[in-house]
Specification:
Residues 16-305 form the NADP-dependent oxidoreductase domain. The protein has helices at residues 32-45, 60-71, 97-111, 130-142, 156-165, 186-193, 232-252, 256-265, 280-287, 296-305; strands at 3-5, 12-14, 18-19, 49-51, 78-83, 85-86, 92-93, 118-121, 149-152, 170-174, 196-200. By secondary structure, it is an alpha/beta fold. The chain has a single domain (3-211, 255-296), classed as TIM Barrel (Alpha-Beta Barrel), CATH 3.20.20. Helix 2 crosses helix 3 (97-111). It is globular. The relative contact order is 0.15.
C-alpha cells in the first residue's frame, strides 16, 4: 500500500487506515476473534493506522485492540484514540486537563501502551477556549504520553486558533461522496497548515457496500437507525442514486466501496481515510481503493451520478449532532 504522512513531521502510515468503532458493536454484534482476524488482515495489506476512542463501547474497542497488541507485540500499528466526551451523569463534553488526563491514561491502560501516536479531542467543550485545550495536549506531548494532537469535527477557524498555539497533527470529520461539508474550508485549511485530514465514514456507513444495508434489520445498538438518511423517503431516494453509482463501478471492474475510498484519496495527498469494518472480506475491498486510478472521464461521470449535495436527509440525528461545529 502507498503511504501518506500524518501531518507535518508526523509518521508515514498506509494511505488507508481503519476506523475501529465497529469493534464495539455500533453496526451490529461482533466478537474478539473476528475483530482480531480483521487486524491480521490489516497487517497483511499494509493498513497500519488504527483509529479508536474511549466512547466506542465505553472502552470496548480499545480493549479489543489492546488484547491484539498484547498477543502481537511486533504489530507495527500507529494508534489514534480520542477523549473529551463524558457520559455521567449525562452526556457532556469536558476538555479540562484533569478530565483529559484521566481519559488518556485509561485509554493507555486498555490499549496496554505507554504512548499514543495521536490523541484527539473527540468533541470540543465550547465554553473552554481551544487555545487552553491545545496547551493541555502540548503538555502531554512534552511528558512523552502522546505523539501528536488531533481534533474531531471542528471548524476551520477553530483549527487555525489551535494550530497557532501548537502544531496540530490531524483533524478528522465525516467525509465521503455523500458528506461534503469539509470541502467548504476544512480540507483547504488542513492543506495550508500541513495538517492531515482524516475522513471517517468514507463508505457512507455501509451505503457503498456491494449490498445496500436494510434499515429494517438494524438492531437496537445500530448507530444508523435514527439517522435521517436511513429513514423513509430519504433512504429510498439515496438508494436510487447509489444503484446508478454501483452500475458505473461494475462497468469499470471496481467494487463500490473501493471506488468510494479511491475518490476520497483523490481529493488530496493529505487525506487519510479510515473506513470502518469488522470483516476481513470487507477490508480487502476497502484497500483496493488504494490501487484505483481515476481518469478525468471517471471523475466527470462520478460527479454526474453523485453531484455535491445529492444525499437526502441529515447525516446525524439531532441528538447525535450535538458538539459538531457547523461552519457553513
Amino acid at each position: 500500500m502507498k503511504q501518506r504522512q500524518l501531518g507535518n513531521g508526523g509518521p508515514l502510515v498506509g494511505a488507508v487506515g481503519l476506523g475501529c468503532m465497529s469493534f464495539a458493536g455500533f453496526y451490529g454484534e461482533t466478537d474478539i476473534a473476528t475483530s482480531h482476524d480483521t487486524l491480521d488482515a490489516c497487517r497483511d495489506h499494509g493498513v497500519d493506522f488504527l483509529d479508536t476512542a474511549l466512547i466506542y463501547g465505553m472502552g470496548k474497542s480499545e480493549e479489543v485492540i489492546g488484547s491484539y497488541l498484547k498477543e502481537n507485540p511486533n504489530h507495527g500499528f500507529k494508534i489514534a484514540t480520542k477523549g473529551g466526551i463524558e457520559t455521567k451523569p449525562t452526556r457532556h463534553f469536558d476538555n479540562s486537563e484533569g478530565a483529559l488526563r484521566r481519559a488518556l491514561e485509561s485509554s493507555m491502560t486498555r490499549l496496554g501502551v505507554d504512548y499514543i501516536d495521536l490523541y484527539y479531542i473527540h468533541r470540543r467543550e465550547q465554553e473552554r477556549p481551544i487555545e487552553d485545550v491545545t496547551e493541555t495536549l502540548a503538555k502531554f506531548i512534552k511528558e512523552g504520553k502522546i505523539g501528536g494532537i488531533g481534533y474531531s469535527e471542528i471548524a476551520p477557524s477553530s483549527l487555525r486558533r489551535a494550530h497557532a498555539v501548537y502544531p496540530i497533527m490531524a483533524v478528522q470529520s465525516e467525509y465521503s461522496l455523500w458528506t461534503r461539508q469539509p470541502e467548504m474550508g476544512m480540507i483547504q485549511t488542513c492543506e495550508e497548515l500541513g495538517v492531515a485530514f482524516v475522513p471517517f465514514s468514507p463508505v457512507a456507513r455501509g451505503m457503498f457496500a456491494d449490498t445496500l444495508p436494510n434499515p429494517e434489520t438494524f438492531g437496537g445498538s445500530d448507530f444508523r437507525k435514527d439517522q435521517p438518511r436511513f429513514t423513509g423517503e430519504n433512504f429510498t431516494a439515496n438508494c436510487a442514486k447509489l444503484d446508478r453509482f454501483r452500475d458505473f463501478c461494475t462497468s469499470r471492474g471496481w467494487s463500490p466501496a473501493g471506488a468510494a475510498i479511491a475518490w476520497t484519496l483523490d481529493q488530496g495527498d493529505h487525506l487519510i481515510p479510515i473506513p470502518g469494518t469488522r470483516s476481513r472480506a470487507h477490508l480487502e475491498q476497502l484497500v483496493d481503493g488504494d490501487a484505483i486510478e481515476f481518469t478525468d472521464e471517471d471523475r466527470a461521470e462520478i460527479k454526474r451520478i453523485l453531484p455535491i449535495g445529492w444525499a437526502h436527509g441529515d447525516r446525524y440525528s439531532d441528538a447525535q449532532i450535538v458538539g459538531v461545529e457547523r461552519y457553513c
